[in-house]
Amino acid sequence: MSDPRLTPDPATVTQDTPAQIARPVVDLCRAPSGPRDRQLLFGDALRVLDTAAGWSYIQAEKDGYCGYIPSDSHGALTTPTHYVSAPATHLYSDADFKSPDRMRLNHTSRVTVIALSDRFAETSAGFIPAAHLTPMDQHQTDPAQVAALYLGTPYLWGGNSRDGIDCSGLVQAALLSCAIPCPGDSDMQMTLGENADGPYRRNDLLFWKGHVALVTDGDTLIHANASAMACVYEPIATAIARIATQGDGPVTAHRRL
């Protein structure tokens, strides 16, 4: 049976129109006005497959995830030139940090730069500090270092932004920033890499039922979790014991990218 998260419902598909997210953060819902499954960020590319009653049925480009977003939350597709490589930034009305800010953009948001100076990048939506952007063809190389940008971020089920993130959202942001393809949910992420045995290595993935964490060194991991209600470092042995004690079972997989 096909996975409805990744396979568009043929009974719902009436079009196939390229578009992109036009708000800082948009919930990707299971049904119109339904629960949040994931989130999409400013500039994320997508295909609009149907529009009705103010909702668009879409499929995200970055991971193939299907769901519903408000129809006024997306616009015409452009070719991004840069992405936000800082934890977050602001988009200003002028090339001046004292000018009014128009919106807050999160890490991995994608933008199209029209002109670039030493201080600011101009886009059709406003000006972004140049230091907060990286060209699209320049990728990060260390997922654990990227994940550290989210330390202290509040835990949010289905979250994918610096405003709120969950375990699989953290892993996806870290891996996609390093040009490593990564699906949206932890059960799908368990197919990444290869099974690993022995000592833990930096950037290994550890899985429990419904949870994933990224190893930062042989004794430590980073994860967004509902126990701390935040993205935190935690000793691996402590995490394994705590998760078992709270009734969520043992480690179910150890994967090496």
Q: What is the string of SSEs from the N terminus onward?
A: EEEEEEEEEEEEEEEHEEHHEEEEEHE
The CATH topology of the largest domain turns out to be: endopeptidase fold (from Nostoc punctiforme)
Task: Give the number of helices.
Answer: 4
Strand order of the largest sheet: 18-23-19-20-21-22
Give the CATH class of the largest domain: Alpha Beta
Mean pLDDT: 97
How many domains make up the coordinates? 3
Question: Could you give the distance between the termini?
Answer: 27 Å
InterPro entries: NLP_P60_dom, Papain-like_cys_pep_sf, PG_Endopeptidase_C40, SH3_16
Domain NlpC/P60: 137-257
GO molecular function, one term: cysteine-type peptidase activity
Organism: Sulfitobacter geojensis
Concise summary:
The protein folds into 3 domains: 17-75, SH3 type barrels; 82-135, SH3 type barrels (Roll); 143-256, endopeptidase domain like (from Nostoc punctiforme) (endopeptidase fold (from Nostoc punctiforme)), CATH 3.90.1720.10. It is 12% helix and 39% strand.
Please give a structural write-up:
The chain is mainly beta and 257 residues long. The chain has three domains: 17-75, SH3 Domains (SH3 type barrels); 82-135, SH3 type barrels (Roll); 143-256, endopeptidase domain like (from Nostoc punctiforme) (endopeptidase fold (from Nostoc punctiforme), Alpha-Beta Complex). It has helices at residues 143-147, 167-177, 186-189, 236-245; strands at residues 17-21, 25-29, 36-41, 45-52, 55-60, 66-70, 74-75, 82-84, 88-92, 101-106, 110-111, 115-116, 120-123, 126-129, 133-135, 160-161, 164-165, 194-195, 205-208, 211-217, 220-225, 230-235, 253-256. The strands form seven sheets. It has a six-stranded antiparallel β-sheet, with helices on both faces. Strand 4 and strand 5 form a beta hairpin. The longest helix has 11 residues, at 167-177. It is globular and about 50 Å long. The two termini are 27 Å apart. The model has no long low-confidence stretch (mean pLDDT 97).
